[in-house]
Amino acid sequence: MERLDASTRLKVDVMFEGIRYSEALGNAVEHALPNYYPYRFKLDEPNPTGKPQVAIPYLIRTPDGTMIRVKGNGESDWVVEGDKAAGYRLRNATAGDDIEIRFEPMPEWMRGQTSDGFPMAQAGVSLHSDMMVINVAPGCEYFLHKHDGESMRCRFCSYGAPDERTAHLGQVAGQLAIPGITLSRMQETVTAALGETPIRHIYLVGGSLTDWREEGERFLQLARAVKEINRENVPVTLGSGALPDDLLQQFHDEALVDNVCFNLEVWSEPLFAKVCPGKNRYVGYDRWIASLETAVSLWGRGRVYSAMVAGIELEPEHEMDWLQAADLCIAGAEDLCSRGIIPIYSLYWPIGGKNHPEYMSRLRSFFERLNIAYAGIREKNGLAISDKFMCHRCAYMQLECDIDRNHEDAA
Q: Could you read off the pLDDT of 229-259 as tens digits, one per residue?
């Protein structure tokens, strides 16, 4: 494959260029799944709301099922028109594009409460279309530790430490077990969601612990609680950090999960040490890859994944141009796929001060080169992303599922 297909290229256009505010976009948040990031108006941008920032929808879907995350950008040529009754269109007058879209809706269960009156929207369950993400312990203990004055948190991460923001989930720093009330609320919420929304994948995630064995014990507790109420046998993915072999064997023997995804985040030990100092200190680069290989021996090729933060290599401190960064990632994809491990490249959006045309142009060149090369690597190694893990309907910041689906359709 020498270039992206038209559908995937449209997704990349909107991901990188963003969408300018319109009343249609603002009004859609009344019925759409809300974005985690508000729309922030530029000083010289027309602002019909009179507010510096407003809520906007999170995800849009095109007629062929492609999922795209909404990024607000007052300088974009893309704009949403229409309303819920008449339907919405995404238009770009400069390029002449006019596309029918729909916003991912806000499900009714997210407005509901558990039997003890707790808001289901705060029970640690969220959606990316047909993927349910369960995170009942989001606080990461890497944020609590420093060595030689350096924080152990991953450089791209905004999870934060266990503190007042995680108090509603009962998460307390240093406490291994997930409170029973937290698990029961999660189970009620998951049951309500499965009854309303077509869910094809369940993804178990959470903040890291400095002891990988304790992290594994916490995820065993979570996975067992999910299995109790997963009566439709929706495929489940273990999204913890790397774990000791004996605990992986336990997950496998109890048939708690269908896939494993331990996020290495970046390729090469030196970069891993810089970007993920906590993972490097408390687990280690070689041990992380070895854990992924153990998972392949248990679940098989095509069932073991590693999310990668695609583009953090372009941060100035790593001293790489976009071509060097892409080639490093491509070499990593070759190595991991040869081991039966499938990397998933999620686009890294820089935070603060770098959302300017030159930086985004380099980031886009990097991301396209990586994904075009990686499609060939998957094909060469006979690997495909399992529909039990993720698909084009939920891959809102990734391209692999879009590229593979469109390639199959063209063939």
A: 999 999 999 999 999 999 999 999 999 999 9
* Of 244, 367, 385, 397, residue with least CA distance to 306: 385
| Whole-number Å distance between alpha carbons of 125 and 136 | 8
pLDDT value at 267 more than 60: yes
pLDDT of 196 strictly over 80: yes
Q: Determine contact, residues 282/211, Cβ cutoff 8 Å.
A: yes
Domain 108-410 has CATH 3.20.20: yes
C-beta pairs of 196-199 under 8 Å, 24+ apart in sequence: 196/107, 196/108, 196/109, 197/107, 197/109, 197/127, 197/130, 198/130, 199/127, 199/130, 199/131, 199/132, 199/234
Residue 283 and residue 262 in contact, taking contact as beta carbons nearer than 8 Å: no
Q: pLDDT by residue (tens digit) across 133-181?
A: 999 999 999 999 999 999 999 999 887 888 888 999 999 888 899 999 9
Alpha helices in 150-199 (DSSP H): 180-196
Query: Which residue ranges make up each domain of the chain?
Result: 6-103, 108-410
